[in-house]
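Hi R.,

Here are the chain sequences for the assembly we discussed:
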Amino acid sequence: MTSTIATPQVITQATQPIAGQKPGTSGLRKKVKVFAQPNYAENFIQSVFDVVERGDGATLVIGGDGRYHNRTVIQQAIRMAAANGYARVLVGQGGILSTPAASNVIRQYGASGGLVLSASHNPGGPDEDFGIKYNIANGGPAPEGVTEAIYQRTTEITEWRAVDTADIDLDTLGVVDVAGMAVEVIDSVADYAALMEKLFDFGAIRAAVAGGLTMSFDAMHAVTGPYAHEILEKRLGFAPGTVRNGVPLEDFGGHHPDPNMVHAHELFETMFGADAPDFGAASDGDGDRNLIVGRGIFVTPSDSLAMLAANAHLAPAYAGGLKGIARSMPTSAAADLVAQSLGIPAFETPTGWKFFGNLLDAGMATICGEESAGTGSDHVREKDGLWAVLLWLNILAVRKQPVAQIAAEHWAKFGRNYYARHDYEGLPTEAANALMGELNGALATLPGQVFEGLTIETADNFAYTDPVDGSISTNQGVRILFVGGSRIVFRLSGTGTEGATLRVYLERYEPVGGDLAGETPVKLADLIAAADGIAGIARHTGRTEPSVIT
Ligand code: VG1
Ligand code: CO
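And here is the predicted structure of the full complex:
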């Protein structure tokens, strides 16, 4: 006797468009309470499935950073994928895949795309944040053309589809059938760790560790814990306890999983304290950012990008040289100086990793980075926190010098781009829009004006023409360039979930032979005062101090 498995019924649920489902810098991010409303996540996911390119028998990757609401949305996304013609879903065990690991899985298994469930560095929990981002077949965040089509679809949607099946067991590795679609629960770490072993000289790092190299890594109770335990402690031999806060928690232990001086202050205390290890690092909620601290020295992300690019040839994957270096516009120009000396092109893109995808696909850039602690290369199509940590370790293992010395030698060769970002968070949206509106209105009259002794040379609003596909992205931030090369950039955040966040990016270049060992706040004091004079920050917002300085 043959038994037949009844095909679970496809449920078609009537719905209506829900306002505000426009993806920002990195996907759709809202409070959990917003995402948990009836039809909210379903409308967005159905809109993705309705517009994205995929052939017959397509594979979808699903993974998240483990935050609250992750499992609920994953189960629903699986039921919806089965009703929307996907042949296979690959999902990380426990619903966990770091953002770079998800990018790798998409590429490695030839998936047509993936759903990355994360709100990155934003806090998690029932009253905090959640997010969904769609990545395309190259493993990278969907470009603006695709996110715009998804958004358009959310404004017209009338129904979503799912199969009527129970939740699957996300914690056991293996393949289960969901209404004829294969769902494979995969090891979240294995493929990623194997990729890292290919890129870097693990033997050299292991030898350095055996020779006494020490480090401290703060996983911030976020997604990189399992990756860091496996790679740093198991494969590279760092002492147990090197990884702290290594167990992913749905609320990140009540903290912001944002690797900066404010939220990773314990790591800073360790690195600036007595008996500090040689190297300190941290990553964010979804594992795509990195914080680099040497013993007694914080390396700004912009400097880290430049130093990694300058030394990348010391790691096997980059021994043949780099094709180009790309950075987001607000990131300091330190990386450009490295590109110049290497005789390779430097690209300046808008904020957000989606703008690097074309350059990486076209082989025009090898290493990319953002001032917000994001660095990565052509090994995946996302920024990659542990990748940056491992490249630093590979460099330290080869150069056998402290981070402070590597930094000092870098500045002595290239000059130093003193840099800071001041964030004004939780502003009333009208106040923030009024500030930016006034600033944009003044662009034509700013050149020639003097603030705090600094003369404005040019002022514009950054627009980017993608050199590969010619697409144009406008209104990407106001740039004020001063005579002598200092710079202030103003832009509004596209990842927040409450009010508006104004980001003010400050940069002063000190050439070779100048004061290369100064204190950043002192070196930037006149620019900080000028920023208020130019944009009327206190006048518009009532704030005299930023909420966070990074
Ligand atoms: C911020 C950063 C940006 C980064 C983005 C996503 O965007 O400034 O550089 O790409 O977050 O990072 P915004 O629009 O708030 O300035 V993550 O780690 O949240 O995926
Ligand atoms: Co992130």
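The longest strand covers residues 416-427. The pocket of alpha-D-glucose-1-phosphate-6-vanadate (ligand 1) is lined by residues 25-26, 120-121, 284, 288-289, 328, 351-353, 370, 372, 374, 493-495, 503 (CB under 6 Å).

Let me know if anything looks off.

Best,
T.
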